[in-house]
Design goal:
The chain has helices at about 5-25, 30-55, 60-95, 100-105, 110-125, 140-155, 165-185, 205-215, 220-240; strands spanning about 135, 190. The protein is mainly α.
């Protein structure tokens, strides 16, 4: 039957999108890399939906989906960060006199995100608590954050001229372990899934969507802010629920 191959074909399109994103990341075109991560996210959304609609879910599809997701949402953003840091280090050396050996090694820390993304995906496959929400930061959200952040830095430095190149090096190096922690953390994070459309029970989701509207006006930069706001809102609402 042809229909049983449709979800896996869509998943493979996700994987191919991730490979293309990685290619453009290493070429230094972070905006194109981000575009293909977004395309991969669209395929990732529709492969699961098509499997459910066609009633053709399979164990191989689940494994293939995790592999594709780690390429598109783990390795591709790692390649973006690596490529950016690799280009940033010469400027940092000139400004800070950091040792060349140390600065040449720093970009490779980016690939830790690919490893933690794989670990998050493995945990997700075995975790039965994530039907209506997430435990930890979803890999697509993490990938979109990094792609949007680096893309915006590529064509317009934030807070210029106050942010010197070495500042962004320190900020990115600080964000990498935070990102890895969020991927595998036990922090509950809401999903934009609605059982009903009323305000009651959906307060957090509607608040998030309404507050995100102004951020869309900022373009690519706004996408990074939206993901950061999603994490902050999830953490705050989780703490509020825990104290009740």
């Amino acid at each position: 039957m042809i229909k049983k191959h449709i979800p896996n074909t869509i998943t493979c399109c996700n994987l191919i999108s991730g490979c293309i994103a990685t290619y453009w990341a290493f070429r230094g075109d972070y905006q194109l890399a981000l575009l293909f991560i977004v395309i991969g996210a669209v395929f990732d959304f529709f492969d699961g939906m098509s499997a459910r609609l066609l009633h053709v879910s399979s164990p191989i599809g689940k494994e293939l989906d995790s592999l594709a997701d780690d390429i598109t949402f783990g390795f591709a953003p790692s390649a973006i960060i690596f490529s950016y840091l690799n280009g940033l280090c010469p400027a940092v050396i000139n400004n800070c006199q950091l040792s060349i050996v140390n600065c040449q090694l720093l970009p490779y820390l980016a690939f830790v995100i690919a490893a933690f993304s794989a670990l998050r995906l493995a945990k997700f496959n075995l975790d039965e608590r994530q039907a209506l929400g997430f435990i930890g930061l979803p890999t697509p959200a993490n990938a979109l954050f990094w792609g949007a952040l680096i893309s915006s830095l590529n064509f317009q430095t934030w807070f210029e001229p106050y942010m010197l190149p070495e500042y962004w090096l320190y900020i990115i190096l600080a964000l990498i372990p935070i990102s890895c922690y969020l991927l595998v953390s036990e922090i509950p994070m809401f999903a934009l899934k609605f059982k009903q459309w009323g305000w009651k029970g959906n307060e957090v989701k509607y608040t998030f969507l309404i507050t995100c509207l102004p951020m869309f006006l900022l373009g690519v930069k706004g996408l990074a802010l939206i993901i950061a706001w999603y994490v902050i809102l999830s953490v705050c609402t989780q703490k509020a629920t825990a104290t009740k």
